[in-house]
Design brief:
alpha/beta; 2,3-Dihydroxybiphenyl 1,2-Dioxygenase, domain 1; 31% strand; globular
Length: 149
Amino acid sequence: MIDINGMAHVILTVSQYDKAKAFYARLMPAMGLETVFDNEGLTYFVGARTAVGIQPCKPEFAGERFEQGRVGLHHICLRARSREDVDKVDALLREMDAHIVTPASEGHWAPGYYYVLFEDPDGIRLEVNHVPGQGVLAEDASFNPGNDW
């Protein structure tokens, strides 16, 4: 067996790089991820045992928006340490006038599942959640994502 130790990073390709940089530059530090690299081709945030980068798309795709149902990424979920932290993200998103798909609320995916679902300027969906204990790894948990992500 290979022992994976989490996900090292995710890089998102965006069509509105300047808007995305402003969005993530406000969101990521609030969640403990610092900007460690920033130029016209990549902005990279690191912290909380995770890294998120954004890069501009190729010129021929400029102006396109993310489509969740296409092949590829569905959404990214970052894990919070508490329900209160999810509420703080929800409040920050409101201050940022971000598009919130589902405000901070309980989900049915695992006992105590609490989350906020939102989109970046290109419509890429992100989630911040808190699941107490072992979440979907608990013996009595039943994972059933459905279609409401």
